[in-house]
Amino acid sequence: MSLLDKIKKNSTIKESGILSESKFFNTKDLIQTPVPALNVALSGKLDGGLTPGLTVFAGPSKHFKTAFAMLLAKSYLDKYDDAVILFYDSEFGAPQGYFDSFGIDTDKVIHTPITDIEQLKHDVMSQLNGLERGDRVMIIVDSVGNLASKKEVDDALDGKSVADMTRAKQMKSLFRMITPHLTIKDLPAVVVNHTYQEMGLFPKAIVSGGTGIYYSADNIFIIGRRQQKTGSDVSGYDFVINVEKSRFVREKSKIPVEVSFEGGISKWSGLLDIALESGHVVKPSNGWYQVAADGTDSKKFRTKETYSKEFWLPVLADATFTKWVEDHYLISTGKIMQEEISEEDIAEAYDDIG
Q1: Please, what's the b/e burial string for 243-259 (b: 16 or more CB within 10 A of its CB; e: otherwise)?
Q2: Half-sphere exposure of 134 toward its Cβ, with a 13 Å CA cutoff?
Q3: Strand 137-142 relative to strand 84-89: parallel, antiparallel, unpaired?
Q4: Which of these CATH numbers, 3.40.50.300, 3.40.50.2300, 1.10.150.20, 1.10.10.60, describes 22-263?
């Protein structure tokens, strides 16, 4: 018996295994969305998507955070016929009509109202302990931003007005407990959260809930918003995904997703900004766009006309565009030590110093 086999056999943890053969690293689930720009934000790839673990959408009110969670839930249900959405609801800002607008089968959604962090922690851990790898469940929490701690609720009932010092500790405990289960059991969790502005001359948006959520999350997106206008009328919004933390995408990346009042989420959101930066789409004159690979005599498109398969399929089929996106957004996986240093190199360096 080799030393590797001996150590593996002696382990008291049944999931122990050789890293190169580990199912936790080599067989991660991938939930592709119908919006390529959102796939880029989630994974750094146009054909990527959501992976198991904790993903957080944070931002002010009415910044499309719940809608992003709904879009991911729809994508999960589309991939797996037997999938279930476990929806923890503290804000009741997503009525059944909201699910219906995304085409989500509400017969596959377990709706669980929650009033405090401890209640959420107890129930979600009970659910996770009863699940196994291969069970198709997505957890959504909407939201943790306004969840009180049990102590805060009890103090209010008792007529006390003392400050609650337990909330951040309970929040950290919640995410510390669920994170390993999500990875081991190959489950995605999407959490909606709030932000607040830090004090200072140049205030920065901070994700509420303390450090626990930062340590545990695979992705933290802070959602910004800018208006779309037709003439002087607001016709929709660009919701800008600011990558605050990611295990896959370069932090501080900004990826817009366009939502119009009439048409909803655009499948081709954000691609125009990306393709203009990469040079795969050019702007020959104000308000007109061309696919660069088609040459200067190619068809010109107005902005609205670029929201079409005719415009985007040639770009998405271009391998150089796919490579540019991955080079631009993916975290590098190259060697940290670019070259080996020998004892002779070290000795030579000391001689030079001397």
Answers
A1: bbbbebbeeebebbbbb
A2: 1
A3: parallel
A4: 3.40.50.300
Domain borders along the chain are 22-263, 267-334
Q: What DSSP string describes 278-311? A: HTSEEEEETTEEEEGGG-TTSPPEETGGGSSHHH
pLDDT digits (tens, 9 = 90+) for 152-194: 888 888 888 777 778 889 999 999 999 999 999 999 999 999 9
Token pair 């789409």: residue: 281
Place of tokens 């366009």: 258
Rounded alpha-carbon distances, angstroms, from residue 38 to 89, 110, 182, 343, 347: 24, 25, 21, 48, 51
Contact 288, 301 (CB under 8 A): yes
DSSP code at position 84? E
DSSP 159: T
pLDDT of residue 96: 82
Write down the H helix ranges in 142-296: 150-157, 167-184, 211-216, 271-278
Does residue 117 contact residue 170 with C-beta atoms inside 8 Å? yes
Q: Other CB atoms closer than 10 Å to residue 207's CB: what's the count?
A: 23
pLDDT greater than 70 at residue 333: no
Cα–Cα distance list, 336 to 218, 248, 332, 339, 340 (Å): 21, 16, 10, 9, 11
Global pTM reads: 0.88
> What residue ranges in the chain does DSSP mark as E strands?
53-58, 84-89, 109-113, 137-142, 188-193, 195-197, 205-207, 219-230, 233-246, 254-260, 264-265, 281-285, 288-291, 301-302
Token pair belonging to 35: 């919006």
Distance CA 32, CA 51 (A): 9
